Amino acid sequence: MMLNVSVPRASARVLSLAIRGSGSYFSNIANYPLSSNPTPRNIVGSSPLLSSLRPSLRSIHNPLLISTLSRGMSSKTTSKTMKEMVTDYSSKPQTPVSLQTLMETGRGERIGKGGTTDATIAASDSEGTATELVLMQVASFLKHELPIRLAHRIKDLDNVPMMSEMNSVLQVRDWYEKSMTELIEFPAITSKEDEEKFAKLLEGIYERHAGVLVTMARGAFELRAAIREGKYGRGGKADFEEMEGMHKFLDNFYMSRIGIRMLIGQYLSLRQPPMDGYVGMICQKTSPGKVVQQAVDDASFMCNRKYGDAPEVIVHGASDLTFSYVPTHIHYIMLELLKNSMRATVEHHGVDEDYPPIKVIIADGEKNEDVVIKISDEGGGIKRSHVSRIWSYLFTTADPAVQEGMVAFENVDHSIDSPLAGLGYGLPISRAYAKFWGGDLSVMSMEGYGTDVFLHLSRLGASKEPLP
Ligand SMILES: Nc1ncnc2c1ncn2[C@@H]1O[C@H](COP(=O)(O)OP(=O)(O)OP(=O)(O)O)[C@@H](O)[C@H]1O
Ligand SMILES: [Mg+2]
C-alpha cells in the first residue's frame, strides 16, 4: 500500500514517507513520521504520577448529523455523502500498535526508516528539529489512521441491532461522524504550523469524546429499559445481560476507544515538555508497586467517603520492579478492583467492624512474560449465579438508584468523584484495559468467604492492540 503524505521539502528527506508494503504500523509510521510524551497538561494535573493518571481516568471513559456537518465541509468532502465516506474509510484496514512501536516512534527511532530514506537525518538535525519531525510523523500517521478507526466504529454502531436506535447511541455516532469529517478535511500536514493546528483539532476531538463511555452506558441503559418494557418482542424479559452479541459489540467498541484515546493521548503528551523516563504516556520505568499504592490511596478515599472507614490494604511482592507500561492503565484497573474489594469487605462484615485486610501480591521474575498482580479480599465472595454476569455491562449489586443517577447526568466521568460502585462497568472496562496491551483479568470467587482477582500485564510490550 502506498500512502500519500505531504511533507515540507526540508523534512521530506527524513520522513520520506514512501510507505511500502502492508498496512503494518511500522510501514505506516515510517511513512508517517510517528512519536511520544505524557498526557496533555490541559487535561492532566500537576504531580507526575497524578498528571499521568488523571487524564485516563477522565478520558478512558468519553465524542452531528450530515446536515450539520456538511455546513463547514470543503468541496472535496461534500462531493461524497457521509455514507460514502464511512463506507470508504471503514473498508480500509486499521493499523495496530504496540507499546514498543509507540516508544520507538516517540523516541524518533522510526524516522528515516521508511525504506528509501536516509537514516542519518535524525542524527544530523538538531534535537529540536528531530522532535518536530517526530511530531509531524505522528500527526501525519494520526491523520491517516484516526478517520479509518472512527469509520469502523460508525459502521459498527449502525449495524448493532436495537442498540443503534437508542438516542444516546445516535449522539455518540454523531460525535464520531463529526470527528471523522474534521480529520478527513484537515489538509496534509506539511509544516510546523499545520502540526500545531492539528494538535488543537485533536485536543478538541479528545474533549468531545470524553463522555463516550458514560453516553454509551446510557444507551445500554435505554436499551435494557426498552427490552424490559417489551419493545423488542422479548415479552418484557430483562435479559440484556445475557445478550452475548450485544456484549461482544460493547467489548469491541470500548476496546477500540481505548486505542483511539491512547493514540491521541500519546501524541498530545509528546507535545508536552518531556518527563523523566516517559515517552509520551508510556513510562519506561513503571513501578506497579507505586501505581498500586496510588490506587490504594484513591480507593481508600472513596471508601471512606461512602462508609466513613476503609479496610487496610497490605501490598506484598516485587516492590522494586519496573517495566515499560502506561501507568494510567494500571491505575485505572487497580482502582476499580480495590473499590470492589473494599465495598465487598465493608458490606460483608458491616460498617464499624474490624475488617480483614485486602492483600495485593505483585509477582515478577526476570524471565516472566507477565507481571501478575493478585488482589485477595475476604468480602464474602460472589454468588455463583452472579459469576457469569459480573462481566456484563450494567450488572451491579449496588443500589440501582446510583446507576440511574449516573446515566442521567451529562457530565459524569469516571474519576474519584464518582460513586464507589454502581454503574456496573468497572470489571468489563478493566478487562478491556488489561487485554489492550496483551494481558488479562480473571476473577475467582469463593461464596461466603472472599474473592481473588488476577491481573496479568504483559511486560514484553510487543503485543499489538487487538483491533476489532
Ligand atoms: N471483590 C468482589 N467481591 C464481591 N463481589 C464483587 C467483587 N468484585 C465485583 N463484585 C460484584 O460484581 C459486580 C460488578 O462489579 P463492577 O465493578 O463491574 O461494577 P460495580 O462495582 O457494581 O460498579 P462500578 O461500575 O462503579 O464499578 C459488583 O456489583 C459486585 O456485585
Ligand atoms: Mg466496581
From TrEMBL:
**Coiled coil located at which positions?**
none
InterPro entries per record: AK/P_DHK_N_sf, BCDHK/PDK_N, BCKD/PDK, HATPase_C_sf, HATPase_dom, His_kinase_dom, Sig_transdc_His_kin-like_C
Q: Which SUPFAM superfamilies match?
A: alpha-ketoacid dehydrogenase kinase, N-terminal domain, ATPase domain of HSP90 chaperone/DNA topoisomerase II/histidine kinase
Kinase as UniProt keyword: yes
Report the residue ranges that make up the Histidine kinase domain in this protein: 327-461
Q: Any idea where this protein resides?
A: Mitochondrion matrix
> Under which EC number(s) is this enzyme classified?
2.7.11.-
Give GO cellular component annotations, separated by semicolons. mitochondrial matrix
Q: Does the keyword ATP-binding apply?
A: yes
Cite the Pfam families for this sequence: BCDHK_Adom3, HATPase_c
Record key words, sorted: ATP-binding, Kinase, Mitochondrion, Nucleotide-binding, Transferase
Q: Which GO MF terms does the UniProt record name?
A: ATP binding; pyruvate dehydrogenase (acetyl-transferring) kinase activity
Q: Name one GO biological process term.
A: regulation of glucose metabolic process
Q: Which domain of life is it from?
A: Eukaryota
Which reactions does this protein catalyse? L-seryl-[pyruvate dehydrogenase E1 alpha subunit] + ATP = O-phospho-L-seryl-[pyruvate dehydrogenase E1 alpha subunit] + ADP + H(+)
To which protein family does this belong? Answer: Belongs to the PDK/BCKDK protein kinase family.
PANTHER family, per the entry: [PYRUVATE DEHYDROGENASE (ACETYL-TRANSFERRING)] KINASE, MITOCHONDRIAL, PYRUVATE DEHYDROGENASE KINASE
Q: What is this protein called?
A: Protein-serine/threonine kinase
Q: Which organism is it from?
A: Triparma laevis f. longispina
